[in-house]
């Protein structure tokens, strides 16, 4: 089976389109996030992150509601591919991944890390999703999505944010300058990555 768009209805609540990767690492993956050129603005509202934005042939975010529906009935594996502007490649996988529904503020489950990137989701496991207009993070004095841009499962605030500003490899040592596409365990918080792909499939695939 070839990569491409498919219609799915994981819970009987109505079908929607997804982009599937049927070739990488055995196939069966649904891509939930993709970034590679900064063409799509990821500094979005709660509604945008809930419903999804972008296009499958460009950069996109599938949408929290859809990710919840895909992961609510069975345990999923999340695989994250990371590429730097120096064309270095790392990956992280979580064999227990899921996202709660909107009443939980799309709480994140991300456990059982394996990979070579370091675990930059551990801090975010169990966190609720935060956007610039819906603050659910652990910071008592700021909205992390406003401070560092992009919707994410912020704690206080982050060791990863793959929905940050696309900085074309921007690097800075300034403390406040941590708003890029970051994976701290690999490149720290000041170096913004070139490409990210987040994909999921049932863990028993």
From TrEMBL:
Pfam families: Fibrinogen_C. It comes from the Eukaryota. This is Uncharacterized protein. InterPro entries: Fibrinogen-like_C, Fibrinogen_a/b/g_C_1, Fibrinogen_a/b/g_C_dom, Fibrinogen_C-term_domain, Fibrinogen_CS. GO terms for cellular component: extracellular space. It comes from Paramuricea clavata (Red gorgonian).
């Amino acid at each position: 089976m070839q990569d491409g768009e498919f219609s799915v209805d994981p819970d009987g609540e109505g079908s929607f389109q997804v982009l599937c990767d049927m070739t990488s690492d055995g196939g069966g993956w649904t891509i939930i996030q993709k970034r590679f050129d900064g063409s799509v603005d990821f500094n979005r509202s709660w509604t945008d992150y809930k419903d999804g934005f972008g296009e499958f042939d460009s950069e996109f975010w599938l949408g929290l509601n859809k990710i919840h529906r895909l992961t609510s009935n069975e345990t999923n594996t999340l695989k994250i591919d990371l590429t730097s502007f120096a064309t270095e490649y790392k990956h992280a996988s979580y064999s227990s991944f899921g996202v709660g529904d909107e009443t939980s503020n799309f709480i994140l489950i991300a456990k059982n890390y394996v990979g070579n990137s370091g675990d930059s989701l551990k801090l975010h496991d169990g966190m609720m999703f935060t956007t610039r207009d819906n603050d659910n993070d652990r910071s008592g004095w700021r909205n992390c999505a406003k401070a560092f841009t992009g919707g994410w499962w912020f704690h206080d605030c982050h060791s990863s944010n793959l929905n940050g500003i696309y900085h074309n490899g921007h690097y800075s040592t300034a403390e406040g300058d941590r708003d890029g596409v970051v994976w701290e365990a690999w490149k720290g918080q000041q170096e913004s990555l070139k490409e990210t792909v987040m994909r999921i499939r049932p863990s028993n695939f």
